[in-house]
Structure formats: C-alpha cells, structure tokens
Specification:
The protein has 44 residues and is an all-alpha fold. The protein has one domain. It has two helices and no strands. It starts with a helix and ends with a helix.
Length: 44
Amino acid sequence: AIANVKINLKSLDNQEYKENIKNEYLKLKKESSRLKAEIIELAN
C-alpha cells in the first residue's frame, strides 16, 4: 500500500498535498522500521 502511495504521487497536481503525503509516507516508513527493530529486539 505504501508503495502505491509513492507511485501515485507522480500523478497528482497539488504540490502542497504531494508534500504532505510524502512527509506522512516518510514518517510511516521510519515508524515501521523502528517497530520492526523493536520486535526483533523483543524476539531475541
């Protein structure tokens, strides 16, 4: 789903909206990486 958001950004016209979506995508990506690391830590 996140990959689809990234692909769809290219077809949007509103620059501010694109920036907001991109920032949200980057926050979610960072948070998912953090959660993955936390899960791995807890599993060990």
